[in-house]
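Quick start: read one record
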Amino acid sequence: MTALVNLIVMLGMLVVVPCGLTLIHGPGIAAVRVFWLVGAVPGSVALWLPRGGPATGLAAVYAAATVVLAATAPLRLARTRSLAPREIAVLTALVTPSVAGLALVAERSGHRLLGFDLKILELTVPHFHFAGFTAALMAGLVCRATPGRVAGRLAALSVPVGTLLVLAGYFIDDWAELAGAVVLTAGMWLVGLLTWREIRTGAPDRLTRGLLGTSAAVLLATMLLALSWALGEATGIPHPTPAWMAATHGLGNALGFALCSVLAWRRLRQSDEQPYERRDEQRVERPVERTAAQPDVRLEPDGRLEPGGRLEPGGRPEPDEGPEPVRDGAEKGVLAAGTPA
């Protein structure tokens, strides 16, 4: 692997994915957060070793961490029993790092997995950290923070669909990959538009607004580069080289979009603490002042308030859509104290 690609992948392994996982709550996620760096550190070391046994072994440790993360997706689905757009987005975020993990093991061993060139496998690793995990997670968060907006639902659907179409294009042909790039670009531009117009304007401080604005603006250029690459691969017209794409599209998405996004949403979450108390088997909320523009930022799997719930002026939660299940004898529509279930 080239040094630049290695650094981009390390950023995803050691910073972006761990920070992103703090924005997801559900069965097994807390354990994965603890386990993740146990796999990510060896995986990062494997990037810099020559291909062979030691590099493959360390990469396999990282791949195991991605499989553990992917295993939380069916647990979440079983709990939510929902395929709402925002849930599809977060399920995609949980699963796609395992594609990167498998590609890393194959590339570090020098094995042409399914006949793919080692260079393709090398680029698959960062792609499914950023276009897979981060883009899908941000699409889900934006969808949940803009309830009732068609654009939010379209973003939460088109980012996972586009990512999977790009993956399918690896097996079909370059035209299928181009179709995936078009869908993914449309979804990412919707994420950027909603982030700029809806999320950024409700952020509580200048730094958070700056991070959100940067993440939204960067997508305009980086996704144009992705389109130009896919179009060139399909038609044969001149297009950027892989090294140029890594230095522009890859670096821009890693630093400008992914890193800025997860840092901004973590700041939003920290400013959005909701003080609730639990008494007996009932969850009773204390009054809390909120601005209508400030988005909720946690992806919850149980549907009680989250995902997408709003607070009415009196502090009572109002569900975004559909009936909410009653769990463990608690009133529906209210959060437990501290961390959600």
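The longest helix spans residues 206-235.
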